[in-house]
Amino acid sequence: MRASRAERGSVCSIVLVRHAASEGSGSFVGQNDVPLSASGRGQLKGLVRKLAKFRFHAVFASDLERTRQTAIEAVRLFDLELQMRPGLREMHFGRWQGLCWDQIAKRQPRIAGLWLKHFPRQPIPGAEPFTAFKKRVKAELAQIVSAHRGRCVLVVTHAGVIRVLLADALGIKDRNLFRLAQDPCGINVIDYFAGGVAVRCVNG
User: Fold this and answer.
1) H runs (alpha helix) in 82-171
2) What is the residue extent of each domain of the chain?
3) Is the whole-model pTM more than 0.90?
4) Which of 32, 133, 134, 153 could be stapled to 91 by a disulfide with Cβ–Cβ 3.0 to 4.6 Å?
5) How many CA atoms lie within 13 Å of 107's alpha carbon, on the beta-carbon side?
6) Where are the beta strands (DSSP E) in the chain?
């Protein structure tokens, strides 16, 4: 069944992009405010080529440096203002922030094992609760969607944020979030319309 003209006009297309590779890649970077790595900066030209096929009306990013550095290239391409949103930040990983998995497993083997077994119900010491992170991310996106009906919006953010939004759109259980691959500069497209949602692309 074809959507009506009114329904098509109410669609908000959200293009979710994970930032380019950053310093500390391979660890639980979380909300540590690190810049892009040399390899990440080298990925930006390829990202701009992929984004050139879209016609964006607005560009949003989390307020951390690695997303800002990634998004600024798109802003230059489309001559748009970059709007920074703290609500689009990655989850804060508490005592695990900045550590790689081998370090975590060595320092806190019992908690690490429980986290693997019971994710996302097992909390990380000192971290933002997963339920609070999920609520924050979904609320932030809902505001963007409601303000941009009939438009295409670029959102440059983090792997955890994107996984939460994709899982919500696809009806995937939280414990399966890590089945959704998110490479640096990966592109995901979700259409939000009255009464529904359609995922057009994952990690493109």
Assistant:
1) 101-107, 109-118, 130-147, 159-170
2) 5-94+129-201
3) yes
4) 133
5) 10
6) 12-18, 58-61, 82-84, 152-157, 187-193, 196-201
